[in-house]
Amino acid sequence: MGQAIQAQCMQLNVKVSDFQSKAIDLNDISAVIDFSSPGGVEACASFCVENKLPLISGTTGLTDEHLGLVSTAKKSIPILLASNMSIGIANLKSSIKEYLSSISISSKCKIIEIHHTNKKDAPSGTAIEIQRFIENLPGSKVVSPIDIESHRIGNIYGIHRIAFENAEGKTTFQHVANSRNVFAIGALQAAKWIHSKEAGEYTFADFLNKKL
Predict the structure, then answer these.
(1) pLDDT score at 211
(2) Do domains 2-85+180-209 and 87-176 have the same CATH topology?
(3) Residue-wise pLDDT tens digits, 131-151
(4) Is 151 a catalytic residue?
(5) Dihedral sign, Cα of residue 44, residue 45, residue 49, residue 53
(6) SS3 call for 78
(7) Superfamily holding 87-176
(8) CA pair distance 132, 21, nearest whole angstrom
(9) Exposed site from 40, 63, 115, 127, fewest CB < 10 Å?
(10) Beta strand residue intervals within 116-191, DSSP E
(11) Closest CA to 128 of 101, 106, 147
(12) Candidates 3.10.310.40, 3.40.50.720, 3.30.2130.10, 2.60.220.30; correct CATH number of 2-85+180-209?
């Protein structure tokens, strides 16, 4: 992800720096973008709070302890946490919401997510987010619990397949990421947006809606 973000920055003529560099000029920083590890989120949040900088984090696998740190940090800086910064996933969720509002019978749901073999957390943060999204939809006819099936194969950037099955048949929604660029572009756009926001915690949906 770091390489993908750097590549996009070069195309957009945007300067990118390592926040741990001793030669860094804080006046050049608009926001910190983190795609590291749960431990990395701690370091990034501390740096951002100390220097009053916005934080964008796409790191997944966060524990309650990490989220507690975010809750403290958001009192002084704007923070955007998102398990997936793809506009395609946002559109997928919108389509699922529209579909579920159109059916009147109960349906079983299964989420299948496939990622590269180096991805450490399973299920993916995106799969968990989609699961919670479906479970929390008002008036949802989906039968709980929603099963998540995870696979780690080759160099796959991310496939999320959501299948609904009821007495009328089976309906499947799917998003396939062909490269990391889709996440890098979303992160950079969100970073530009959050730069002017007040302290607090934001979601990728807040950025897409641009109502705050």
Answers:
(1) 45
(2) no
(3) 999 999 998 889 999 999 999
(4) no
(5) positive
(6) strand
(7) Dihydrodipicolinate Reductase; domain 2 (3.30.360.10)
(8) 38
(9) 63
(10) 147-152, 159-166, 169-176
(11) 147
(12) 3.40.50.720
Catalytic residue among 119, 141, 192, 195, which?
119
Domain ranges of the chain: 2-85+180-209, 87-176
Strand partners, 55: 32, 79
pTM recorded for the entire structure: 0.75
pLDDT above 50: residue 93: yes
Question: pLDDT tens digits, residue range 3-12?
Answer: 888 888 888 8
Q: Say how far apart CA 185 and CA 61 lie, in whole Å.
A: 22
Q: Which letter, b or e, does each residue of 162-196 get, where b requires 16 or more Cβ atoms within 10 Å of its Cβ? A: bbbebeeeeeebebebeebbbbbbbbbbbbebbee
Distances (CA, A) of 65 to 125, 132, 188, 196, 207: 17, 20, 27, 28, 25
Active site residue 115: yes
Please give the structure tokens belonging to residue 160.
């999320």
Give dist(CA 24, CA 116) in Å, integer: 33
Tokens of 173: 């929604």
Residue 202 corresponds to which tokens in the numbers above? 């934001």
Give the total residue count for the chain: 212
Report the amino acid identity of residue 196.
S
Q: Check the CA dihedral 96-178-42-27 and report its sign.
A: negative
